[in-house]
Amino acid sequence: MAQQETPTAQIMNLVTHSDYCTIEQLVAECPDLTWIQVFIEINRLRRDGLVSLTLKQPGYYVVSLVAQPKMAQVAVA
């Protein structure tokens, strides 16, 4: 039996292999997750600095991968 991916892995895999995607596209691509589960995970990933949310028009947000996550940035003296 195949092991199921975590919500984080599912979403990061989709966002990584796409220039950008909407929350609705992520929900459609993750049928085992509810809309709120996807939203909560995107919010956590955004706070962790791994993805960004961009408002394109009222009610239409695009999720994209952050090129260099905050956790990986190193201060140069």
Structure description:
- With 77 residues, the chain is α+β, with helices and mostly antiparallel strands.
- The protein has a single domain, classed as Winged helix-like DNA-binding domain superfamily/Winged helix DNA-binding domain (Arc Repressor Mutant, subunit A).
- It has three helices and three strands.
- A three-stranded antiparallel beta sheet has the order 1-3-2.
- Strand 2 and strand 3 form a beta hairpin.
- Helix 2 crosses helix 3.
- The longest helix has 13 residues.
- The chain starts with 6 loop residues before the first helix and ends in a 12-residue tail after the last strand.
- The mean pLDDT is 85.
CATH fold label: Arc Repressor Mutant, subunit A
- In total, the number of strands is 3
H and E order: HEHHEE
Tally of helical segments: 3
Query: Largest sheet at a glance?
Result: 3 strands, antiparallel
Name of the top-level CATH class: Mainly Alpha
- Portion of residues in helices? 25-40%
Unreliable runs, pLDDT <50, ≥5 residues? none
Strand content: 15-25%
Q: Give me the secondary-structure category.
A: alpha+beta
Named at the architecture level, the CATH assignment is: Orthogonal Bundle
What overall form do the CA principal axes indicate? Answer: globular
Average residue-wise pLDDT: 85
Keywords:
alpha+beta; about 80 residues; three-stranded antiparallel β-sheet; 3 helices; Arc Repressor Mutant, subunit A; about 20% strand; globular
What does the secondary structure layout of this molecule look like, with pairings?
Layout: H1 7-16, E1 21-22, H2 23-29, H3 35-47, E2 51-57, E3 60-65
Antiparallel strand pairs: 1-3, 2-3
